[in-house]
Specification:
alpha/beta; TIM Barrel; eight-stranded parallel β-barrel; four-stranded antiparallel β-sheet; 11 helices; binds phosphoenolpyruvate; binds manganese (II) ion
Protein backbone atom coordinates (compact mmCIF):
# COMPACT_ATOMS: atom_id res chain seq x y z
CA UNK A 1 0.00 0.00 0.00
CA UNK A 2 1.19 3.53 -0.69
CA UNK A 3 0.01 6.82 0.73
CA UNK A 4 0.26 9.72 -1.70
CA UNK A 5 0.52 13.01 0.20
CA UNK A 6 -1.15 16.11 -1.25
CA UNK A 7 1.23 18.64 -2.85
CA UNK A 8 0.17 21.22 -0.20
CA UNK A 9 0.69 18.87 2.78
CA UNK A 10 3.27 19.81 5.41
CA UNK A 11 5.89 18.03 7.48
CA UNK A 12 3.50 17.67 10.44
CA UNK A 13 0.97 15.85 8.21
CA UNK A 14 3.71 13.50 7.06
CA UNK A 15 4.93 12.87 10.61
CA UNK A 16 1.38 11.99 11.69
CA UNK A 17 1.01 9.46 8.87
CA UNK A 18 4.35 7.85 9.74
CA UNK A 19 3.38 7.72 13.42
CA UNK A 20 0.02 6.16 12.57
CA UNK A 21 1.86 3.41 10.73
CA UNK A 22 4.53 2.80 13.33
CA UNK A 23 1.89 2.69 16.09
CA UNK A 24 0.36 -0.24 14.19
CA UNK A 25 3.70 -2.05 13.94
CA UNK A 26 4.24 -1.08 10.30
CA UNK A 27 7.20 0.64 8.70
CA UNK A 28 7.16 3.64 6.40
CA UNK A 29 9.39 4.14 3.36
CA UNK A 30 9.46 7.72 2.12
CA UNK A 31 9.92 8.67 -1.51
CA UNK A 32 10.19 12.42 -1.86
CA UNK A 33 9.53 13.54 -5.42
CA UNK A 34 9.65 17.11 -6.69
CA UNK A 35 5.89 17.54 -6.41
CA UNK A 36 4.72 15.06 -3.83
CA UNK A 37 5.83 12.64 -1.18
CA UNK A 38 4.83 9.00 -1.29
CA UNK A 39 4.85 6.82 1.80
CA UNK A 40 5.30 3.10 1.16
CA UNK A 41 3.74 0.94 3.88
CA UNK A 42 5.81 -2.07 4.86
CA UNK A 43 4.34 -4.98 6.77
CA UNK A 44 1.04 -6.90 7.05
CA UNK A 45 -1.76 -4.41 6.36
CA UNK A 46 -4.88 -4.49 8.57
CA UNK A 47 -8.24 -4.22 6.75
CA UNK A 48 -9.25 -0.85 8.25
CA UNK A 49 -5.93 0.91 7.53
CA UNK A 50 -6.96 2.36 4.18
CA UNK A 51 -10.05 4.08 5.67
CA UNK A 52 -8.04 5.40 8.62
CA UNK A 53 -5.34 6.91 6.40
CA UNK A 54 -7.70 8.38 3.84
CA UNK A 55 -9.23 10.81 6.34
CA UNK A 56 -5.91 12.09 7.72
CA UNK A 57 -4.84 15.68 7.03
CA UNK A 58 -2.56 16.06 4.05
CA UNK A 59 -3.35 12.65 2.56
CA UNK A 60 -4.29 12.75 -1.13
CA UNK A 61 -4.80 9.12 -1.97
CA UNK A 62 -4.23 5.66 -0.51
CA UNK A 63 -3.52 3.05 -3.15
CA UNK A 64 -3.24 -0.69 -2.74
CA UNK A 65 -0.41 -2.16 -4.80
CA UNK A 66 -1.97 -4.71 -7.09
CA UNK A 67 1.27 -6.54 -7.98
CA UNK A 68 2.39 -9.52 -5.86
CA UNK A 69 5.74 -7.79 -5.33
CA UNK A 70 5.19 -4.61 -3.36
CA UNK A 71 8.42 -2.87 -2.38
CA UNK A 72 10.02 -3.80 -5.70
CA UNK A 73 7.18 -2.29 -7.71
CA UNK A 74 7.22 0.98 -9.59
CA UNK A 75 4.11 2.05 -7.66
CA UNK A 76 6.02 1.76 -4.39
CA UNK A 77 9.00 3.75 -5.63
CA UNK A 78 8.04 6.15 -8.39
CA UNK A 79 11.55 7.60 -8.32
CA UNK A 80 14.39 5.31 -9.42
CA UNK A 81 16.46 3.72 -6.68
CA UNK A 82 20.09 4.81 -6.71
CA UNK A 83 22.39 2.20 -5.17
CA UNK A 84 25.67 3.45 -3.69
CA UNK A 85 28.63 1.06 -3.63
CA UNK A 86 31.61 1.01 -1.30
CA UNK A 87 33.85 3.74 0.08
CA UNK A 88 34.31 5.10 -3.42
CA UNK A 89 30.52 5.70 -3.46
CA UNK A 90 30.01 4.40 -6.98
CA UNK A 91 26.38 5.10 -7.90
CA UNK A 92 24.09 3.07 -10.10
CA UNK A 93 20.47 3.72 -11.13
CA UNK A 94 18.45 6.87 -11.72
CA UNK A 95 20.75 8.00 -14.52
CA UNK A 96 23.99 6.80 -12.89
CA UNK A 97 25.81 4.18 -14.99
CA UNK A 98 28.39 1.75 -13.56
CA UNK A 99 30.56 -0.95 -15.12
CA UNK A 100 31.57 -4.01 -13.11
CA UNK A 101 34.47 -5.91 -14.67
CA UNK A 102 37.01 -8.56 -13.78
CA UNK A 103 37.64 -12.25 -14.02
CA UNK A 104 34.97 -14.91 -13.65
CA UNK A 105 37.03 -16.50 -10.86
CA UNK A 106 39.81 -15.25 -8.63
CA UNK A 107 42.89 -17.36 -9.49
CA UNK A 108 45.88 -15.48 -8.02
CA UNK A 109 46.84 -12.05 -6.65
CA UNK A 110 48.72 -11.26 -9.88
CA UNK A 111 45.78 -12.18 -12.13
CA UNK A 112 43.31 -10.11 -10.11
CA UNK A 113 45.54 -7.06 -9.74
CA UNK A 114 46.56 -7.01 -13.40
CA UNK A 115 42.90 -7.26 -14.43
CA UNK A 116 41.79 -4.65 -11.90
CA UNK A 117 44.35 -2.11 -13.12
CA UNK A 118 43.48 -2.74 -16.77
CA UNK A 119 39.70 -2.48 -16.33
CA UNK A 120 40.03 0.60 -14.14
CA UNK A 121 42.17 2.30 -16.77
CA UNK A 122 39.47 1.51 -19.33
CA UNK A 123 36.75 3.11 -17.16
CA UNK A 124 35.26 0.26 -15.09
CA UNK A 125 34.21 1.37 -11.60
CA UNK A 126 33.66 -1.91 -9.71
CA UNK A 127 35.91 -5.01 -9.70
CA UNK A 128 34.23 -8.41 -10.04
CA UNK A 129 35.69 -11.84 -9.22
CA UNK A 130 34.26 -15.10 -7.89
CA UNK A 131 35.77 -16.74 -4.81
CA UNK A 132 32.86 -19.13 -4.21
CA UNK A 133 32.08 -20.48 -7.67
CA UNK A 134 28.86 -22.33 -8.54
CA UNK A 135 29.98 -24.87 -11.15
CA UNK A 136 27.78 -27.19 -13.14
CA UNK A 137 30.24 -30.03 -12.50
CA UNK A 138 31.53 -30.67 -8.98
CA UNK A 139 34.91 -31.55 -10.55
CA UNK A 140 35.44 -28.07 -12.03
CA UNK A 141 37.42 -25.35 -10.21
CA UNK A 142 35.14 -24.16 -7.41
CA UNK A 143 37.00 -21.08 -6.29
CA UNK A 144 39.60 -20.01 -3.73
CA UNK A 145 37.03 -19.28 -1.01
CA UNK A 146 38.34 -16.98 1.77
CA UNK A 147 41.82 -16.75 0.18
CA UNK A 148 40.07 -15.42 -2.92
CA UNK A 149 38.17 -12.83 -0.86
CA UNK A 150 41.48 -11.64 0.60
CA UNK A 151 42.93 -11.25 -2.88
CA UNK A 152 39.95 -9.16 -3.96
CA UNK A 153 40.16 -6.98 -0.85
CA UNK A 154 43.88 -6.40 -1.49
CA UNK A 155 43.12 -5.35 -5.07
CA UNK A 156 40.50 -2.92 -3.73
CA UNK A 157 43.09 -1.45 -1.34
CA UNK A 158 45.55 -1.00 -4.17
CA UNK A 159 43.17 0.38 -6.83
CA UNK A 160 40.38 1.99 -4.80
CA UNK A 161 37.78 0.00 -6.77
CA UNK A 162 34.91 -1.48 -4.74
CA UNK A 163 34.38 -5.22 -5.24
CA UNK A 164 31.49 -7.56 -6.01
CA UNK A 165 31.65 -11.29 -5.36
CA UNK A 166 29.19 -14.16 -5.14
CA UNK A 167 27.84 -15.72 -1.97
CA UNK A 168 26.24 -19.12 -2.46
CA UNK A 169 25.04 -20.15 0.95
CA UNK A 170 23.35 -18.44 3.90
CA UNK A 171 26.10 -19.72 6.16
CA UNK A 172 28.77 -17.83 4.15
CA UNK A 173 27.01 -14.45 4.15
CA UNK A 174 28.76 -13.21 7.27
CA UNK A 175 32.20 -14.17 5.95
CA UNK A 176 31.71 -12.76 2.45
CA UNK A 177 30.14 -9.56 3.84
CA UNK A 178 33.31 -8.97 5.89
CA UNK A 179 35.27 -8.47 2.66
CA UNK A 180 32.96 -7.39 -0.14
CA UNK A 181 31.18 -4.16 -1.09
CA UNK A 182 28.41 -5.91 -3.06
CA UNK A 183 26.98 -9.38 -2.43
CA UNK A 184 26.24 -11.22 -5.68
CA UNK A 185 23.42 -13.77 -5.66
CA UNK A 186 23.93 -15.98 -8.70
CA UNK A 187 21.42 -17.21 -11.25
CA UNK A 188 21.34 -20.68 -9.66
CA UNK A 189 20.36 -19.13 -6.35
CA UNK A 190 17.75 -16.61 -7.46
CA UNK A 191 15.12 -18.61 -5.60
CA UNK A 192 17.25 -19.70 -2.65
CA UNK A 193 14.94 -18.08 -0.13
CA UNK A 194 17.06 -18.65 2.99
CA UNK A 195 19.97 -16.95 1.15
CA UNK A 196 17.77 -14.03 0.06
CA UNK A 197 16.53 -13.62 3.64
CA UNK A 198 20.10 -13.61 4.91
CA UNK A 199 21.44 -11.01 2.43
CA UNK A 200 18.30 -8.99 3.23
CA UNK A 201 19.55 -8.72 6.81
CA UNK A 202 22.81 -7.07 5.70
CA UNK A 203 23.05 -3.47 4.61
CA UNK A 204 25.35 -4.19 1.68
CA UNK A 205 24.12 -3.74 -1.88
CA UNK A 206 22.95 -7.01 -3.46
CA UNK A 207 23.42 -7.87 -7.14
CA UNK A 208 20.57 -10.28 -7.85
CA UNK A 209 21.00 -12.28 -11.03
CA UNK A 210 18.01 -13.62 -12.92
CA UNK A 211 17.57 -17.40 -12.78
CA UNK A 212 17.81 -19.44 -16.02
CA UNK A 213 14.04 -19.97 -15.96
CA UNK A 214 12.93 -17.05 -13.83
CA UNK A 215 10.03 -14.95 -15.09
CA UNK A 216 10.10 -11.21 -14.41
CA UNK A 217 7.59 -11.81 -11.63
CA UNK A 218 9.69 -14.60 -10.05
CA UNK A 219 12.72 -12.32 -10.22
CA UNK A 220 11.01 -9.29 -8.68
CA UNK A 221 9.54 -11.51 -5.95
CA UNK A 222 13.08 -12.73 -5.23
CA UNK A 223 14.14 -9.06 -4.93
CA UNK A 224 11.16 -8.54 -2.63
CA UNK A 225 12.68 -11.01 -0.14
CA UNK A 226 15.77 -8.82 0.16
CA UNK A 227 13.77 -5.57 0.32
CA UNK A 228 11.36 -7.01 2.89
CA UNK A 229 14.37 -7.73 5.11
CA UNK A 230 15.01 -3.99 5.16
CA UNK A 231 17.84 -3.96 2.63
CA UNK A 232 16.76 -1.51 -0.06
CA UNK A 233 20.03 -1.62 -2.04
CA UNK A 234 19.17 -4.16 -4.73
CA UNK A 235 20.54 -4.21 -8.28
CA UNK A 236 18.95 -6.63 -10.75
CA UNK A 237 21.11 -8.38 -13.36
CA UNK A 238 19.87 -9.86 -16.63
CA UNK A 239 22.32 -12.63 -17.58
CA UNK A 240 20.41 -14.57 -20.22
CA UNK A 241 17.83 -17.31 -19.93
CA UNK A 242 17.67 -20.90 -21.10
CA UNK A 243 15.88 -21.38 -24.42
CA UNK A 244 15.89 -24.07 -27.16
CA UNK A 245 18.94 -22.43 -28.75
CA UNK A 246 22.21 -24.21 -28.02
CA UNK A 247 24.67 -22.18 -30.12
CA UNK A 248 24.88 -19.52 -27.44
CA UNK A 249 25.26 -20.45 -23.77
CA UNK A 250 22.09 -18.55 -22.87
CA UNK A 251 19.74 -16.23 -24.70
CA UNK A 252 20.17 -12.64 -23.59
CA UNK A 253 16.70 -11.28 -22.91
CA UNK A 254 17.03 -7.63 -23.87
CA UNK A 255 13.30 -7.15 -23.27
CA UNK A 256 14.04 -7.50 -19.57
CA UNK A 257 15.78 -4.13 -19.40
CA UNK A 258 12.88 -1.84 -20.41
CA UNK A 259 10.33 -4.21 -18.84
CA UNK A 260 12.06 -4.05 -15.45
CA UNK A 261 12.30 -0.27 -15.70
CA UNK A 262 8.55 -0.20 -16.24
CA UNK A 263 7.68 -2.64 -13.44
CA UNK A 264 10.26 -1.61 -10.86
CA UNK A 265 12.33 1.31 -9.54
CA UNK A 266 15.40 -0.91 -9.06
CA UNK A 267 18.45 -0.52 -11.31
CA UNK A 268 19.10 -3.26 -13.86
CA UNK A 269 22.49 -4.22 -15.27
CA UNK A 270 23.27 -6.48 -18.21
CA UNK A 271 25.71 -9.40 -18.19
CA UNK A 272 26.45 -10.14 -21.85
CA UNK A 273 29.29 -12.51 -20.83
CA UNK A 274 26.95 -15.14 -19.37
CA UNK A 275 24.16 -13.98 -21.67
CA UNK A 276 26.08 -15.16 -24.74
CA UNK A 277 28.92 -17.44 -23.59
CA UNK A 278 31.17 -16.30 -26.47
CA UNK A 279 33.68 -13.46 -26.20
CA UNK A 280 33.00 -12.16 -29.71
CA UNK A 281 29.30 -11.66 -28.87
CA UNK A 282 29.94 -9.74 -25.66
CA UNK A 283 30.60 -6.31 -27.21
CA UNK A 284 27.63 -6.27 -29.61
CA UNK A 285 25.24 -7.42 -26.88
CA UNK A 286 26.73 -4.91 -24.42
CA UNK A 287 26.01 -2.19 -27.00
CA UNK A 288 22.43 -3.39 -27.40
CA UNK A 289 21.93 -3.56 -23.62
CA UNK A 290 23.14 -0.02 -23.16
CA UNK A 291 20.90 1.17 -26.00
CA UNK A 292 17.98 -0.60 -24.28
CA UNK A 293 18.61 1.50 -21.16
CA UNK A 294 20.71 -0.73 -18.88
CA UNK A 295 21.97 1.09 -15.78
CA UNK A 296 25.27 -0.74 -16.03
CA UNK A 297 27.19 -3.72 -17.36
CA UNK A 298 29.01 -6.65 -15.76
CA UNK A 299 31.75 -8.03 -17.98
CA UNK A 300 34.21 -10.91 -17.56
CA UNK A 301 37.78 -9.90 -18.37
CA UNK A 302 40.90 -12.06 -18.05
CA UNK A 303 44.53 -11.16 -18.84
CA UNK A 304 44.84 -14.43 -20.74
CA UNK A 305 41.41 -15.96 -21.44
CA UNK A 306 42.92 -19.15 -22.94
CA UNK A 307 44.25 -20.17 -19.53
CA UNK A 308 41.26 -19.05 -17.43
CA UNK A 309 40.08 -21.56 -14.83
CA UNK A 310 36.49 -20.67 -15.57
CA UNK A 311 34.53 -19.05 -18.40
CA UNK A 312 37.57 -18.31 -20.60
CA UNK A 313 35.49 -18.63 -23.77
CA UNK A 314 33.35 -15.66 -22.79
CA UNK A 315 36.11 -13.54 -21.23
CA UNK A 316 37.44 -10.44 -22.97
CA UNK A 317 41.10 -9.53 -23.10
CA UNK A 318 41.89 -6.15 -21.48
CA UNK A 319 42.31 -4.63 -24.98
CA UNK A 320 38.91 -5.89 -26.13
CA UNK A 321 37.36 -4.59 -22.94
CA UNK A 322 38.86 -1.13 -23.52
CA UNK A 323 37.34 -1.14 -27.00
CA UNK A 324 33.96 -2.19 -25.56
CA UNK A 325 34.14 0.77 -23.15
CA UNK A 326 34.86 3.18 -26.02
CA UNK A 327 31.83 1.90 -27.92
CA UNK A 328 29.58 2.02 -24.85
CA UNK A 329 30.60 5.61 -24.19
CA UNK A 330 29.73 6.57 -27.74
CA UNK A 331 26.30 4.94 -27.44
CA UNK A 332 25.54 6.55 -24.10
CA UNK A 333 26.35 9.94 -25.57
CA UNK A 334 23.43 9.69 -28.01
CA UNK A 335 20.85 8.29 -25.57
CA UNK A 336 18.22 10.48 -23.92
CA UNK A 337 19.39 11.56 -20.43
CA UNK A 338 17.18 8.88 -18.83
CA UNK A 339 15.16 6.41 -20.89
CA UNK A 340 11.45 6.86 -20.06
CA UNK A 341 9.99 4.31 -17.62
C1 LIG B 1 29.30 -15.37 -12.55
O1 LIG B 1 28.98 -14.17 -12.50
O2 LIG B 1 30.47 -15.77 -12.72
C2 LIG B 1 28.22 -16.39 -12.51
C3 LIG B 1 28.43 -17.60 -12.02
O3 LIG B 1 27.06 -15.94 -13.02
P1 LIG B 1 25.59 -16.62 -13.12
O4 LIG B 1 25.14 -16.79 -11.72
O5 LIG B 1 24.82 -15.57 -13.88
O6 LIG B 1 25.73 -17.90 -13.90
MN1 LIG C 1 31.42 -16.66 -14.96
Amino acid sequence: MIVVMRPDSNQQNLDSVVKHLTDRGLKAHLSKGVERTIVGVIGPIPGELQDELEVMDGVGEVVRISKPYKMASREFGPTDTVVTIGKAKVKIGGGHFAVFAGPCAVESPEQVLATAKAVKAAGATVLRGGAFKPRTSPYSFRGMKEDGLKILAAARDETGMPIVTEVMSPRDVELVAKYTDVLQVGARNMQNYPLLDEVGQTRLPVLLKRGFAGTYEDWLLAAEYVLAGGNLQVILCERGIRTFETFTRNTMDLNAIPVIHRLSHLPVVADPSHGTGKWYLVTPIARASVAAGADGLIIEVHPNPDTAKSDGAQSLTPDNFAELMRQVKAIRAVLPAKAPA
